[in-house]
Amino acid sequence: MTAIDKSRTVAVVGTGTMGQGIAQVALVAGHPVRLYDALPGRAGEAAEAIGKRLDRLVEKGRIPAAERDQAKARLSPAADLAELADTALVIEAVLEQLPVKQELFAALEEIVADDCLLATNTSSLSVTAVAGALKHPGRFVGLHFFNPAPLLPLVEVVSGFATQAAAATRAYETAKAWGKTPVRCADTPGFIVNRIARPFYAEAFAVYEEQGADPATIDAVLRESGGFKMGPFELTDLIGQDVNEAVTRSVWESFFQSPKFTPSLAQRRLVESGQHGRKSGRGWFPYEDDAIRPEPHTAPATEPPSEITVEGDLGPAGELIGLIREAGITVREVDEDKGTRILLPSGGQLVLADGQTSAEFRDVVYFDLALDYRDATRIALSASEITGWETLRQSIGLFQAIGKSVSVIKDVPGMIVARTVAMLVDLAADAVAKGVASAEDIDTAMRLGVNYPLGPVEWGHRLGRAWAHELLDELDTRVPTGRYAPSLGLYRQSYIRMEKDEAGT
Description:
Blueprint: E1 10-13, H1 17-28, E2 33-36, H2 42-59, H3 65-74, E3 75-78, E4 89-92, H4 98-109, E5 117-120, H5 127-131, E6 140-145, E7 154-159, H6 165-177, E8 181-186, H7 193-196, H8 198-209, H9 215-224, H10 232-239, H11 241-254, H12 265-272, E9 307-311, H13 320-326, E10 330-334, E11 341-343, E12 349-352, E13 364-367, E14 378-382, H14 389-401, E15 405-409, H15 417-433, H16 439-449, H17 456-463, H18 467-478, H19 488-503
Helix pairs in contact: 1-2, 2-3, 8-15, 15-17, 15-18, 15-19
């Protein structure tokens, strides 16, 4: 099944920000585009607004004036749904209310031809449920664009329970022909991105609620150690706390209140107080004109140890050995079966976050996971009340010696980056195992949809064997709510890979 021919008309129903953006994408791709809105006059206003955006593209040299003029000539408002009768594709971007969408598509089904593809841009409702009111739901599909649609490349192509394979393929090929990067997805709460992205916010909020660290420090660690473009606190302030919390709550309720998706009480209080982020002037951070932005906690300069001993294989943190040597610190390596750790002159230990806590061991400091220890500019350390001051001091000095800012947080299991990445890996493995999407499409969606430095499937592979599973298993022991229980998909993925590694296949 090929893409819809560019000579065929595409209709967009609903002319808000998303509707206008989708219409612009189809228009620039070469289709005639017809706009419809239930409010009289809104479709005409939207056509004018799109025309002005095309003018700005010409001013910026993005498209030639002739192409702009041709596009404007192909754009027209419709005063009645009946004017959409000749369209090959209708994309809906109206209110996120199931009855409204069902009523709209039931009406469209009586108007358009049998070969017309019907699509919803919903981000929170079930595609299957929206199609439930149709006589012929096989031609119905989800086409979830990301805002702003003309700029962001990702489109989730969602197949409902009754969607025919040919319809999904045609939608996929059409989005691809429009210059987008489509990914296929089954109809599941949150689809790919909004389902798998939940831990990025949830784990940061959990660390905050556990009094592990303040928002500015958590954001800085996830950016400067985890490689994320923005921290979850600043990002949700940008999105809007009310919007982000509503998506989280919707996914949680759609999964029958699964502990994997439990919303944050701290975020709920923020929403209830009207502190919705940038748009309200205050969220996790203040945004008034005279506001002072909080700084992350950074440890003062400390002398490093002159030598260390590394026992065992540091796994994902193995790169540290070379960095420490480059800093002029003597490193002794010892092969031991006791585990993997860095022994300090104080007699204490430095251990990569593994889901356990410093309070369980004498004189242990944990250090957090980094996307790339050479490129990371900040590292988080955690210690308990029984950790020796000299061990903490030497740990701080060691990481400062290799050029890192150090944030010392409280003794929370899994720390910040490690538990966040482990949960992302787990939800991705669960989605693959349940047929939500392929591993490749999940990684593509998370890189393009939310700008993650790595797709979670690839990240899991890089971390090696059962790293995420083992960390979550330890977390589940300490926080036995079910939230951190490793999924069956992660278990299979981890231990099947381990068996293959040991067999040499």
